Amino acid sequence: WLPTLHVAVTGAAGQIAYSLLPRIANGEMLGEDQPIVLHLLEVPQALSKLEGVVMELQDCAFPLVQGIVATDDLRKGFADVSVALLVGAKPRSQGMERKDLLSSNANIFAEQGKALNEVAANDLRVFVVGNPANTNALICAANAPRFNPERFMSMTRLDQNRTQYMLAEKAGCKIPEVDRVIVWGNHSSTQYPDITHARIKGESARKVINDEKWIREVMIPKVQQRGAEVIKARGASSAASAAAAVVDHMRDYWHGAGDRWCSVGIPSDGTYGIDEGLWYSVPVMCPGGHYRRILNLPIEEFSASMMEKSRKELVEERDAVRHLIPK
Ligand code: NAX
């Protein structure tokens, strides 16, 4: 067996974590030969609920789990962690302005960044799920200067998976026969699910689908609004699918994804006209333990206008929380 890794999950008593934790614990994410210590973080009000989650994890008798730390103390929770999955966030309450939501979450992620900076392991990787995920990742990285910002990622894999499913359904093919789907921008309704470069059984997906109207008027808005559609139907936001997307992304990132493209929010390097340092979702390749941006893709006018909308939104988000970005 490999040396034990410490893995932190925040929001550990929440609904995504409830689907996610057993999958991490049984080795689906980091490998079936990777022993782990789980570090579960929650707010004080949720600690008793978290106790129940811990009991259930114990009762699963997962062979890989070497220990469980359950706490509301960031420095204890993040001590020695190599992987931090930041799932917990403050939800929008009634009457709350978007700006207030941004700033209360930015405070949380600034504090988490500082704590990670002090106590996490040198090989730390951070994956932010809690919304607004892209800007939370930016704030967290800015407050953790010990680590290369490239180690902080935000999740758009769920949006990629949603797009991939819709394409496979439309084309009547198997999910793995669809590849090179891209999600650009923010994990919000301004995201741009782009199938310009996608392939179905190795052929241009656009040619196979041969229905631009469906792509622009059905597929794109449906992916953008899928989260809201799930809430309407289920009375709660996506949880099992979000957990599946975390496992998919981290497994690909950790072990490598071969020649498959993955979309993930990462600090922009200024390419594709995106301001440097904005956490913007782009396509990457994962060779194992890091990622490589896919550069020089031709961008059509329609795509450029969609990407620009999301860029503008992310600039606004960043400007709203600028006070929490250390100089
Ligand atoms: P829940 O409300 O079920 O759980 C969130 C948990 O986080 C709660 O138990 C809460 O006590 C805890 N929490 C809040 N602040 C915390 C803090 N400072 N430290 C530790 N724990 C804290 O929400 P859930 O459905 O699990 O969703 C979690 C987050 O994921 C939300 O922000 C949600 O918007 C976001 N999502 C992001 C997605 C993405 O693709 N990036 C998709 C799914 C999901 O909507």
Automatic annotation (TrEMBL):
The lineage of its organism: Eukaryota, Rhodophyta, Bangiophyceae, Galdieriales, Galdieriaceae. This is malate dehydrogenase. GO terms for biological process: malate metabolic process. GO terms for molecular function: L-malate dehydrogenase (NAD+) activity. Belongs to the LDH/MDH superfamily. MDH type 2 family. The chain holds residues 55 to 381 of 405 of the full protein. The keyword Heme does not apply. The keyword Mitochondrion does not apply. Its EC number is 1.1.1.37. Residues 156-321 form the Lactate/malate dehydrogenase C-terminal domain. Keywords: NAD, Oxidoreductase. It comes from Galdieria partita. Residues 6-150 form the Lactate/malate dehydrogenase N-terminal domain.
